[in-house]
Amino acid sequence: MHFVFLVSYTSAHMRAALLTCCLLLCLTAKAQDPYPLTPDSEVQNVPHGTVEKTTLPPGQFYPGTPHTVSIYLPPNAGAEPLPYMVFLDGSGYLGGRMRAATVFDNLIAKHQLPPMVGIFIDPGVLPAIRPDAQNRYERVFEYDSLSNRYVNFLMQDVVPFVEKRHALSKDPNAHAIGGTSTGAVGAFVAAWHRPDQFRRVLSLIGTYVAMKGADTLPELVRKTEPKPIRIWMQDGANDHITPDEPYGTFFAGTWPRANQLLFDALQFSGYDTKLTIGTGGHDTRQGSAELPDALRWLWRDYSPEKGIGKIEVHPPAAQSTATFDKRGSIWSTVDAVGEWESLGKDAVPGLDEATAKALGGIAQTQNGTMYFMGPGSISWGRKGEMDNAIESPTPSPLAIALSPDQAMLVVTDMQHRHQWSMQLDKDGKPTNPEPFYRLEVLDDETGATGAAFDSIGQVYFATNIGVQIAEANGRIAMILNSPIPDARIEKVGFAGADHDWLYVIVQSKFYRRKMKTHGVPFDKPEKPPQPPL
To answer: To pair with 109 at 20 to 30 A between CA atoms, which of 88, 136, 455, 481?
Structure first.
C-alpha cells in the first residue's frame, strides 16, 4: 500500500511538474514569437459583418474559368454606396492568421476604417474536361502579368457582380486592393494601370522578382510621372534566403532586395509609401500581425466626421536640394503632374500647319522637303514632287520626326520596342539606320505610333504607357502619363507661340500641357547640345 501510495503521489507531482513545464514553454514560445496577433485580430464584442461565398461565372477575360468570390458586408450596412477593398487570394485573407473579416469588424467599430465592402477573390481554375486531365491553374497568369487584363477583369466583371448585392462608391480614393506574394504584384499592377480606380495598395511579401517582369517595375516607377497611389509594403529579411544561400534560393532573385528596390523607386518619385522588413521568410506571420496597422495606415485620412480623404501626388521633397540629380527627372520637364487640358475632337485653334503635319506623321524641313511613311517605306520630296522613296528599316513604320537641326530622322515602329534613327545625307536621303531608342514596355504593349523632338534633342514617343521621353543618347528617362488612365497616346507634337505646349491625341481627342522644354519650328532649325553619354 505504501508503495502504491508513493507511486500515486509521485505521479501527481510529475503531472503537475509537466503541466508547469508546458505552461512555461508556451509562455516562452509566446514571448519569443516576434509576430503575435493583436486583439484587433481576435473576435471582440463588436457588431459583426457577414460573409457570403459565391461563384463568379466565366467571363470574357478568362474564358471558361469561374472564380470563387467571398463578399464581406459591414454590420448595419444601409443602402448608401460603400467603399471597398479587393483582396487577391481572398480565401487566404479570410482564413488562417489573417482573419481579415474580424479585423474589419474591429477597426470599423473603432472608426479606424470606414464601413466598407470586402471583396475576397480567389484565382481562377479552368476545370479539366475529363477525369484523367489536369486543370489549368490561372494564378500566375492572372497575378504575375504586367498587362491590364486583371484590372479590367476586376472593373468589368467582378465589381459589377458585387454591385448586384450592394452599391459601391465610385470615388477612387474609396477603393483599395491588396495581395500576398504574387498577389501583391497583381494588386500593385492593377493600381498602376488604373489609379483612377485603386489608390490604396497592400503588398505583403511581394514577388517583385524576375518571374514575369515584375523586376522591371522599379525602373518604370522611377521614370514615370507619379500616380496618386498609397502603398504599404512588407517583407521578411529571410524571404527565399538561407544562411547557406545568402544571395537567394530561387532563380528569380531575392524578395527583400526586390521589395527594397521598388520601395526606393517609390520614395524617389514622391509616393506615400511604407516598407517594413522583418525577420521572417516567405510566409504571412508578419503580414497577419501587421494587417490591422497596415489597414489603419492605408486609410489614415478617414474619419466619421470628414469622411475619406483624397490621395494626391506631391513632388519628392529631395528635388529642391542641391544634391538632387535633375538629369532625366520628370520634374525637369513638367511643373506638376496630370496637367493635361482637354481640347475635344475638333481642330485646335493655334495649331500650326507643321505641328498638324507632325501629328499626322509628316515631317517638314526648312527648305520645304517633306518626309512621310508609306507601307514599309519612307517617301520624301517637295510638295507635288514626292517621287523619292526607300525601304523603311522596319516593316511596321507609322510615324516620322525630324531632329531640331534637321539632320536626323526618327522612324517609329508600332510593333517593336526599338525605334529607329536615320541620318539625312546632303541630298536629304535617309541613311545609316540604327534601332537607336529602346522603349519601356509592359506585357502586351507594342511600339510607338508618333514622335516629336524638343530643342535639346530629346524624343517624345507616343506609346501605350504614355509619352516616353528619350534622352538624345537613346535612353528612356521619363514617361508622362496619358490624360486618360491606361489609354494609348496616339500622336504627339509641340505647338504654341513658343512651342512649349505638348499636344497629344488620345482616343481621337486632343489634349495639351505646358512644358519646361520646347520644340523647334521647322523654319528655324537649331543645333541641339551634345547629349549626355
So the answer is: 88
Q: What is the pLDDT of residues 345-392, one digit of tens each?
A: 765 656 667 677 777 778 999 999 999 888 889 999 987 777 899 999
Residue 99 has what DSSP assignment?
Answer: -
Cα distances from 511 to residues 417, 446, 526, in angstroms, run 24, 22, 27
What local confidence, expressed as pLDDT, does residue 335 receive?
83
What order do you get walking across the sheet with 200-204 strand by strand?
50-56, 67-73, 117-121, 84-88, 175-180, 200-204, 230-236, 272-278
Distance CA 125, CA 487 (A): 30
Helix (H, G, I), strand (E, B) or coil at 510: strand
Cα–Cα distance between 117 and 97 in angstroms, integer? Answer: 20
- Residue ranges of alpha helices (H) inside 342-423 are 353-359
CA angle 151, 152, 156 (to 5 degrees): 125
The tens digit of pLDDT for each residue in 491-519 reads 999 998 899 999 999 999 999 999 999 99
Q: What is the predicted pLDDT for the residue at 350?
A: 61
Please tell me the pTM assigned to this model: 0.90
What is the number of residues in the chain?
533
Determine the Cα–Cα distance for residues 474 and 532; give it in Å rounded to an integer: 10
| Burial class of residue 386 in the structure, from the number of CB atoms within 10 Å of its CB (0-12 exposed, 13-18 middle, 19+ buried) | middle
Q: Which three cell numbers stand for residue 513?
A: 500641357
Helix axes 285-298, 100-109, angle to 10 degrees: 30
Residue 449's pLDDT band (boundaries 50, 70, 90)?
A: very high
What residue type is assigned to position 400 of the chain? I
Determine the average pLDDT of the residues in 258-275.
Answer: 96
**How big, in percent rounded to 5, are the helix, strand and coil portions of the chain?**
25, 25, 45
Is the separation of the CB atoms in 432 and 424 below 8 Å?
no
In angstroms, the CA 368 to CA 406 distance is 12
* Nearest by Cα to 255 from 150, 177, 201, 185: 185
What are residue 168's DSSP bridge partners?
A: 82
